[in-house]
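User: Predict the complex with 3-hydroxypyruvic acid.
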Amino acid sequence: MKGGVVPDVIGTAKLTQAVTLLPYHEHLVWERLSVNTPISDGSAVLIDAPRSQSHKNIMVGRAVATMSGDSRVPVKIINPSDKWMEKPYVLARKFGSPQAIFTPLASLVEEHFTVIDLETLASQPELNQKIQAVLVWVDSAFLNRSLFQVLPNLKVVVNGGVGVDHLDIPLINSFGVKVCNTPKVVDNATADLAMGLMLASARNIIQGDSFSRCHEEGEDVDVNHLGIDVGSKTLGIVGMGSIGYKVAKRAAAFDMKIFYHNRRRRPVEEEQMVGAEYCPVLEDLLAVSDYVVLLVNLTKASTHLIGRKQLSAMKSTATLINVSRGMVVDQEALVEALQNKIIKAAALDVTYPEPLPR
Ligand SMILES: O=C(O)C(=O)CO
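Assistant: Here is the predicted structure with 3-hydroxypyruvic acid placed in the model:
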């Protein structure tokens, strides 16, 4: 293998989550790489864009090219004939089967990994020695003790998505296996969806769509369906992590008054940037908000964070928007609150179970 120097490496930073995607080979370069760091030709490295940038630019596996900002980093790709070029083995649900990794990502994953599905592992149990990572997407029911017991070289469980509430992290860690997720990647999408749900609810977009498809000749739209101007309204954000903050930025552009509730108050400058006011007591936020958006992780503490008491604290004209996890809301209490007009509406990206039975 030839030695060499990779020129013009820019904007490098080591993110734990990203780096743990790649602990597959002894040639891996673990150190933080700085500008113009020489990398010997053929080393497997991960060069990540700065923290503020999307993880979508990360190239994984044996690849060594990456993006930083808009510029492609000119990193040499290792020679595929090298003996250690064998793609790392990962276990995943069969692409295309329910709860498998999102099918459009299959080719990207296969470009960098040898993907073994559960059925193949069952029929060729000797592959267990090769598997160094498990990829999960939403479902982790197959990640049980007996699986870990037969994967002696497993190093990491990689979760596609930010929420790891479905993973038994203590169990995984007890086998010396790390867990990593993909924070930041979904921030914009989730924030957009929160805004989309709020606007759809405020402006009756779903009803408008139905009306436009099914109205009788000459029929006028119901005056109640004309909707509400969110610009004059108050948004309460419960959970002001990076997604919550993105929602705040968007809501600020809509001229909404913003309150937020979070375990930790954000720095004043960050609050001022989006005009958000901290509410240390959840019920205080609920009492003043026209729209309440839930963006907390699902933990023991946040399970049924919104129940009867909290729904009763809300305005009767308020809308509850849940883009976190279904279990954050006591669903029975929500149905009751909607039936009894304790609150006006709910706009839900998540429920339990999911999807709801018909
Ligand atoms: O990535 C996740 O866990 C999400 O739910 C995105 O909203």
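The first helix runs from residue 16 to 19.
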